[in-house]
Amino acid sequence: MEIFFYGITNSITLALMAIGFSLTFGVSGVANFAHGAFYLLGGIITWLLINLGIPFFLSALISIVLVGLLGFGLYWGLMYRLRGLAINEVIVTLAAAIVIIELLRWLGFSGFTYVLPPFVKGSVEIGGVWMDYQRIFLVVIGIALIALLYFFTHWTRIGLSFRAIAQNERTAIALGIDSDWTAALSLAIGSSLSVVAALAILPLGSIDTEIGYEILIYALAVGIVGGLESIPGILLASFILGFAQIIVATFFQAQWLTIITLGAIVLILAIKPSGILGKYKELEDRV
Amino acid sequence: MKKRLSRNKTVWTGVIIFLLLVLPTIVMAQAKPIVLGMPTSFFQPLTGSSKLAIEMAIDDINKAGGIFVKDEGVSRPLKLVTADTRCGEPGTPVHAALMAVDKLIADEKPDALVVAPFRSEAMVATMDLIAKYKMITIQTIAQSPRLIEIYKGEPDKYKYWFRATSNSIYVGTAAASTMDAARKQFGHDKFFIIAQDTAWARAAADAAKSRMEGLGWKTVGYEPVAVGTNDFSPILSKVRTSGAQMLYVVGDMPTLPVCFKQWKSMRIPSMLFLDFAVVTSAKAWTTYGDDLDYVLVMPFPGGTGAPVKALPLSIEFHNKWRDKKLPLMDDPRTVSSAYDAVYILKDAIERAGFVPSKDPDKFVSFLETTDITGVSGKIRFDKASHQQIFDGNPNEGAIIVSYQWRSGKMVPVFPEIVAEEKIALAPWVK
Predict the structure, then answer these.
(1) Are the beta carbons of B278 and A3 separated by less than 8 Å?
(2) N or C: chain A end with fewer CB closer than 10 Å?
(3) CA-nearest residue of chain A to B233?
C-alpha cells in the first residue's frame, strides 16, 4: 500500500515540477530553461514575505504574480529578438537561470534556513499508510492544475492560440494570433505555475539554491518521456517515472533513482524522440 | 588648610585611579598587536560562526587588557586577519586554497594561525606551508585522521601543527556509543543505515556499521541514496519492514530534511540518529520545529551546539554569544573549538613569555604542555600526535556530547557523565 500511495504522491510531484515547463516549451514552443530558477525564486520570495509578517496565502499570491511578471519581462527583455531561434532561446533562458540562481546563492539564500510552512501540519493514516497532509494537498493541487491546464489549452481562445503558435507560428499569425503576446503570456503563466509547484513541494523539505538546477532536470525528463506538447503525456510520464522511482528504491537501492530519470530520457530519445504521446517528430517526418 | 589637604588628597587619589585604569589601555593601544591569521573557506556557515567565536574571545581578552608578554614587559592586544581559501566551494582546486594561505602569511605576517582550511584535502596540503614558515597553527575544523599520520610521519617537520578539536575517529566512536546506549537502555539491537551517496558520507556510514556490529548490533539495512532524492518513503518503508530499532542517517544534501520529516509523518518505528550538521544547533528548531522532536544529534565537541550543565564554560560560551546578540549558528560543529583556540594561545604565550613567531620551535613545548579548561572540558594535547585528547571524562580531556531534541530543547543524553536526561523513545517507537 505504501508503494501505491507514495507512488501517486511522487508522480504528482514530478508532474507539478514539469507542468509549467511543459506549457511554455511544449505547448507554445517557447523554451524556458529558467523554469527551475523561477521555482526557486518563487519559494524564496514567499519565504521573505512570510518573514516580513505577510500571511502565507497573500505571500504566495504575491510571489505567483511577481514571478509571472518576471517571466513576461524575460520574454520582452531578452527573448523577443531571438524568437524562432530555438538554440538561442535555450541559451538565453539558461543564462538567465544561472544568473538568478547564482545571484540568490551570492545573496546567501543557500543552506537549510529557508523553509516554507505546510498548508496544514501533521499526518493521517489512510489504508494503513501514514501520510502527511501536505502530500495529500499536493496531489489535489496537482490533479486540479493538470485538469485546468487541459481545459485551458483545449477550450479557451488563449490556450488554443498557445498550441497554434507551437504547431505552426506563421499560420497562427496568418489567422490573426499575435505570436509575441501569446509567447510572452505563455512564459508568464508557465513561470507562475513553477511557483505554484514550489509552494506545494517545498514545505516537504527546505529551499536550497541547488534545487533550481534539479527541478529543470526533472521537468526535462518528464517532458521528454511524455511528449513535450502533450498534457496527458506529461501526466503519463510522471506516473511512469514516479512509480519507477518508488519501485526501484523499494526493491533495489535508492542510489539508482537519478539513473532512472536520466536513463528514461536516453531510452525514449532512442525509441520515440517525440515522447510517448508527443507527435512533433511524426508531424515533421510527414511534412 | 586641613580641608585643602583633604581635597588635594581626593584629587590625587582620583588621578591615580584614573591612570591605573586608563594607562594599561593606552599602553596596550600602543603595543603592537599579536596577529592571528584565519585562512579558511568562508562559504560555509560553520566558518562564519567560527570567526564570530574568535572575535568574541579576542574582544574579551582585549577588554581585559590583552595578553601579557613577559619578555617584552607589555600587554599586547590580539588582532584577527582572515583570508578566504574558498576550499569549501565546489570546484576550487587545492592549490588555490594554498595560495590564499601563502598570501596571508606573506602579507599579514601573523604570529599564529587558527582554524585553518576547511576541507581536509586543503588542510593536508597546508601542512607543508605550516612547516615551511614554522607557523604555529591551532587547527579546528578539518577532521581527517590523515593529518595525524602526516604529523607522525615527520614530527620534527610538522610539529607546529596542533589540532584543538575532535577528529573523525572520535566522532564515529562517540556516535556508535550513543546509539549503543539505546541497546543498553531498551534492549535494541537492529540497525539500519541511510547514507548520502558521496565518499565522505559512505565512509562515515561504513565506519558506523563496523563499530555498531562490533558492539553487538545487527545491520538489517544499508541504503545509499542519490544526492537530490526528494522522497524517502520507499527507503523508510524498508526501515519499517526490516524491524530496525535504530536508524542512522548521514549526509548534507539539501533534500535531507525531507527524510526526518517523513520519519515523523510516516511514524517509522525506530529511533533516529541524524548525522546532519544543520540540525545540531538551536536555530534548527526555529527552522524545522517539532519535526525534530526525539531526533538524536551530535554536534562534535561537547557544548558547541548547546550548553551542558557539567561543562560550565559551555554555559558561559552560549551566554556570551547571546549577550553579544550574535546570530544563531547555522552549523555549530567545532565553533567552540575556534573559541578555545584563542585561549590556548593566550595561555601558552603567558607561560612562554614570548609570542609564537619569535621562537616557534621553543613555543611548541609550551603548547604541548597545555592544561586548561575549555568549552568541551579539559584541553590537553597528545604529544605523540598533537591531537587534542578526547576522554570520556571532562576533567581529564575534552568530550563529545550527544543530544536529543525535546520540545525545542537540545537535551544532553550521552555520555552518562554529563547526561541531563536519559534517551527517550518517540511515542510511535516501541
Answers:
(1) no
(2) C
(3) A6
